[in-house]
Specification:
Pfam families: AsnC_trans_reg, HTH_AsnC-type. GO terms for molecular function: sequence-specific DNA binding. This is AsnC family transcriptional regulator. The protein is an alpha+beta fold. Among the domains are: about 60-135, 2-Layer Sandwich (Alpha-Beta Plaits), CATH 3.30.70; about 140-145 and about 230-310, 2-Layer Sandwich (Alpha-Beta Plaits); about 175-215, Arc Repressor Mutant, subunit A. The chain contains 11 helices and 10 strands. The strands form 2 sheets. Strands 2-4-3-10-7-9-8-5 form an 8-stranded antiparallel beta barrel. Helix 2 (about 20-30) crosses helix 3 (about 30-45), helix 7 (about 180-185) packs across helix 8 and helix 8 (about 195-200) packs across helix 9. It is globular.
Amino acid sequence: MLDEIDRGLIHALHIDGRAPFSRIGAVLGVSTQTVARRYRRLRADAALRVVGLADPHRAGRAQWLVRLTAAPHSAQDLAHALARRADTSWVKLASGGTEIIAVVHTPAGGGHSLLLHDIPRTAGITTVSAHYLLHSYLGGPTAWRGRAGTLTERQQRQLAPEDSGSVPTAGPSLTDADHALLTALQRDGRAGHAELAAATGWSPATVARRLTALQAGGVIFFDVEVDDAWFGATTQALLWMTVTPAHLEQVATTLAGHHELAFVAATTGRTNLVAHALCPDPAALHDYLTHRLGALGAIHTLETAPVLRTVKGAGPIAPAGEVRRLPPRSG
């Protein structure tokens, strides 16, 4: 599995996805070469990747959590078709392989072609439900605690960008000219200024200034993708909950503090709160559901959808031929 240096490196990338290997090495107490070597190994073995993402509100985008049910023989093909689209992220196969769950990004003012046109006309889909993401309490720039518990507070301060403690200003906003920059960062959030300059047609100095401004203003952030099985999270599930509206804020805030959860959001629909749980095994998931969630009386209903596979994460799907190895078996 992962040793302390691997975990420290991943935690460091969650704090600053573009931090130089030299700075990460200094904080971890190892050489720059060691950090670079570990990063390459984790990319090959654990599907580690840093991706640059736009804040949906700043980018004028709405997010929907879509649940599709399909026949077993067609569900995988449909999941991969959704994953290839630029307007989707976090495409997962769940519930025995017959359910597909995906985040769909749409223009805030309309233009819902996937929801209104493409999905209804797709053969093999038996049921569809779309849930508008109203508010995220955990996820996005905030890492799952299972990945972000290695570095001390002092080490985290040493790695934090200089302006991370400031409140994002009202600007800048994403423009059409930023599209090429964001597309390149979605593929590789650690791409160098020269590579980003080639993708945008700007000079490296212009890329550096624009990237600094967008990141400081909270317009973009950097997420880390990695196979959570390497952290011992071999059992995952999406939890769909119905909570008394008067207690929704309190319950959601409480859940956002649970170590077992990587994502918590309020949604529209028959259920009004969704969470993503990562646990070591089914027994641990059962214990979490019955004891920690069971103790919250404001949760009236709970539906558990086991996640079998993540077909696509936050960024575009990996190029063909990039193979992810399975984590070693414990024991």
